[in-house]
Amino acid sequence: MLFKKELERRRTFGIISHPDAGKTTLTEKLLLFGGAIQEAGAVKSNKIKKGATSDFMEIERQRGISVATSVLAFEYNGIKINILDTPGHKDFAEDTFRTLTAVDSVIVVIDVAKGVEEQTEKLVEVCRMRNIPMIVFINKLDREGKDAFDLLDEVEQKLGLTVCPLSFPIGMGYDFKGIYNIWEKNINLFGGDSRKNIEETVEISDLQSEVLNELIGDAQADVLRENIDLVEGIYPKFDKTEYLSGHLQPVFFGSALNNFGVRELLDCFVEIAPKPRPKQSEERLVKPEEKKFTGFVFKIHANMDPNHRDRLAFVKIVSGIFERNKPYLHVRHNKKLKFSSPNAFFAEKKEIVDISYPGDIVGLHDTGNFKIGDTLTEGEIINYKGIPSFSPEHFRYINNADPLKSKQLYKGIDQLMDEGVAQLFTLELNGRKVIGTVGALQYEVIQYRLEHEYGAKCTYENLNVFKACWVDPKNSNSDEYKEFVRVKQRFLAKDKQNQLVFLADSAFSLQMTQQKYPSITFHFTSEFN
Ligand code: G4P
After folding, report:
1. Which residue has a Cα nearest atom 10 of ligand 1?
2. Domain range for 412
3. Residue 427 annotated in ligand binding
4. 23 CB less than 6 Å from ligand 1?
5. How far is Cα 149 from Cα 128, in angstroms, rounded to an integer?
6. Who's near 476: CB < 8 A, 6+ residues apart?
7. Dihedral through CA 474, CA 478, CA 479, CA 482, nearest 10?
8. Model confidence over 60-81: pLDDT tens digits?
9. What is the pLDDT of residue 204?
10. pTM for this predicted structure
11. 149 lies in the same domain as 286
12. What is d(CA 177, CA 317) in angstroms, rounded to the nearest whole number?
């Protein structure tokens, strides 16, 4: 049974972190261990670096990198690993949220000195809500940082996780000697002046053994014994079922830059991380081992070359086998489509493939058929859930600056919204268009891309909105609902799916409105059924 074997050996995951915690470095080290790249520095950071270049050049540079790093696939010990890239910059947080709908597990990277940071909190919350299995990697142990127990407390409190350390550091920063691997019961010792290499790995089945004193000295041996006693006393024992259900999070310590703790992490990951998981659709739960292909679009990438306006739609295969040139149903359009050159991803290359399995990502060339969340099947009507839009943080009117190019402008806006660059709202009162974004940077992206890819020009005007709240239509026949629509018309808009949205101008006005119309439910994400 080739299909079953291929399915069993897939691990599709994302690495999440606050910018600078070491996500790129860790990704690169994982690829090095997998033999997918030969040297450090091959994986480019997808960070937005402010400074030398103007912002839109930086955005283009970032876009270029993010095409290359969208999916990094490699093999390790017979396991096919797909790493899905997640931008760390908060202005692209929505991209990351969407990518998290396509992963089966995540690794959370935390900087030992900075501890739990803002972006980590937000991303982990999304994973927790979906019970995505998580492994925590505490990075930069070669530097002075917070006490290991304090950090574990912080992770539990700020991230709401139940941690279970599977490794423990011996010293830190200048005194860093190595790491005791609780999972494998051995010690990796850091060596050399630069402390960049593992000097030796020593099996330690009994921590009371004198060998430990010889290796790390009496003082540190005693501290390690005490620490491990504490770990065993305080934290739950590792339980794979609990981890897989999202209720227990193993923790590893290490230094991605110095290759420390990375192999331990990877070895444990391939052993415990989940194979492709079933996915809930609006209609039913779809299991990966089902024979018929289903998949959904979680990311769309526009061509970097403005002369070729095709795009690459990234499809996660949920069930069955995806085959080249086989007609599949595009559920939203009720239309059959065939793909003659689907791309699969390996390290940093993409290649045309004939078949792909659940857990894999295929890149499909698209001339404007797809938008994020679209489902492909062999004929069954299935709509995958779980790609909601969150309320944007910024809102601006978009105006046409070149009346002769209005067609181009609207086409451009339409396609950029399908890609998920921002959200479009059309005011009920006067039909004016409002663009909502997570970060201010997206307005530059839109303006630049409209001009360079569609030949259209736009200007913006600020609009004071505190939050977009999706209005539940369940009581839409009631008098209260009708009065709400009449009184608040000035603040009402439709999103791209034609759902009614209340654009509250302040927290206070939202609260007053909720009090005045108690039978109306307001939602903070676009998906609420
Ligand atoms: P990110 O993708 O999460 O944003 O982080 P990235 O890997 O780019 O790492 C951020 C910075 O932290 C980089 O330094 C990187 O070299 C450093 N770093 C990563 N892992 C470790 C580690 O284990 N120990 C130490 N000491 N540093 C680490 P940079 O100076 O910003 O960039 P670069 O010039 O080195 O590329």
Report:
1. 20
2. 394-523
3. no
4. yes
5. 22
6. none
7. 40
8. 666 555 555 678 888 999 999 9
9. 76
10. 0.85
11. no
12. 44
Residue nearest to atom 22 of ligand 1 (CA): 140
Q: Which of 272, 292, 324 is at the close of a domain?
A: 272
Give 103's contacts (C-beta < 8 A, 6+ positions apart): 12, 13, 14, 84, 132
Output Rg (C-alpha) for the chain, integer angstroms.
25
Q: Whose CA is nearest to atom 25 of ligand 1?
A: 140
Please report the pLDDT score of residue 198 as a whole number: 55
Domain boundary at 316, 342, 377, which? 377
The string of DSSP codes covering 3-36 is: HHHHHHTEEEEEEEESTTSSHHHHHHHHHHHTTS
CATH of the domain at 483: 3.30.70.3280
Q: Write the residue with the smallest CA distance to atom 29 of ligand 1.
A: 20
List the CATH number of the domain containing 138. 3.40.50.300
Residues found in the chain: 529
Looking at ligand 1, which atom is closest to the CA of residue 21?
A: 3
Beta bridge partners of 471: 522
Cα separation, 348 vs 37, whole angstroms? 9
The DSSP bridge partners found for residue 134 are 106
Q: Which of 277, 317, 283, 311 is nearest to 297 (CA)?
A: 317
| Residues in the chain where the model's pLDDT stays below 70 | 38-69, 88-89, 191-200, 303-309, 347-348, 386-387, 528-529
Q: Read off the amino acid at residue 7.
A: L
Same structural domain, 259 and 285:
no
Indicate if ligand 1 lies below 6 Å from the C-beta of 27.
no
85 is in an annotated binding site: yes
Residue 21 CB–ligand 1 contact under 6 Å: yes
Distance 312 CA to ligand 1 centre (A): 30
Say yes or no: 319 and 339 in one domain. Answer: yes
CB 134 within 8 A of CB 242: no
Cβ atoms < 10 Å from Cβ of 88? 26
pLDDT, tens digit, 9 for 90 and up, residues 428-461 = 999 999 999 988 888 988 998 899 888 999 999 9
What's the order of all strands across the beta sheet hosting 186-191? 167-170, 178-181, 186-191, 197-203
140 in contact with ligand 1, CB cutoff 6 A: yes
- Per 3-state DSSP, what percentage of the chain is helix, strand, and coil (rounded to 5)? 30, 30, 40
Contacts of 67 (CB under 8 A, 6+ apart): 301, 304, 312
